[in-house]
Amino acid sequence: MKFNKRILILCEDEKSSLFYFQGFKKDPILKRSLSSVSIEVSHPNDYTPVGLLKEAKEKIKKAKKESNPYDEVWLVFDKDQHPNIPKAFSDARDSVVKIAFSSKCFEYWVLLHFEYTTRPFGKCNDIISYIKKNHFKDYEKNLDIFQHLKEKMKFAIENAEKLNKSIKTDLDSGKNIYDLDAYTDIHNLVKMILDTANKK
Q: Mean pLDDT per 10-residue run, the chain (200 residues)?
């Protein structure tokens, strides 16, 4: 089958973010809209930010060699005490690879499905505890959450855009997004997929 668009998404997290993005092709409604779109979601062995980028570049090279290039290539990762995050961002800027980043963990994006916040959580477990206490008592990282969140996706995008506007002053002053306590731009990847589905 010849696909109209080919998307590669490499996730650092082998649970929540991986399940979330796999959900776009599993969803009964969206999978029809995305039937002519190839969305490849995976969790490489080396899932550090630099490792994800290396894997992406290898896959891009292989796809071009096979005359079946990717139209979009994304890395999904968070701060999570990883080394070399600045290098990953710098090297990605010199390539076609895009980054969907959360300053603490993917759960900050999950939280935005329920409320708008700029709250700087100390660690990822604090965000998970907050979600469980206030919004989704059964939430766990290994839960396939797409179906639970899909109806709230538009709200999450609006909240993420609002959050990004709120930190514009910090970025204009020279701060990097990976130095911020409250940040996610996962919505840019989600919007791209939804826009692709709606163009059918």
A: 81 90 91 87 90 94 93 91 83 89 93 96 93 95 90 97 92 87 94 85
Helix (H) or strand (E) holding 120: none
CB 189 within 8 A of CB 9: yes
Beta-strand relationship, 98-102 and 37-42? unpaired
Q: What is the per-residue burial (b if ≥16 Cβ within 10 Å, else e) of 176-191?
A: ebbebebbbbbbbbbe
Read off φ and ψ for residue 62, nearest 5 degrees.
-65, -40
DSSP H or E segment with residue 158:
helix 153-166
Spatial contact of 77 and 12, defined as CB atoms under 8 Å apart: yes
Instruction: Tell me which H or E stretch contains 41.
Output: strand 37-42
The closest of 156, 143, 147 to 102, measured between CA atoms, is: 156
Q: Which of 137, 152, 5, 12 has its CA nearest to residue 68?
A: 5
Question: Is the overall model pTM greater than 0.85, yes or no?
Answer: yes
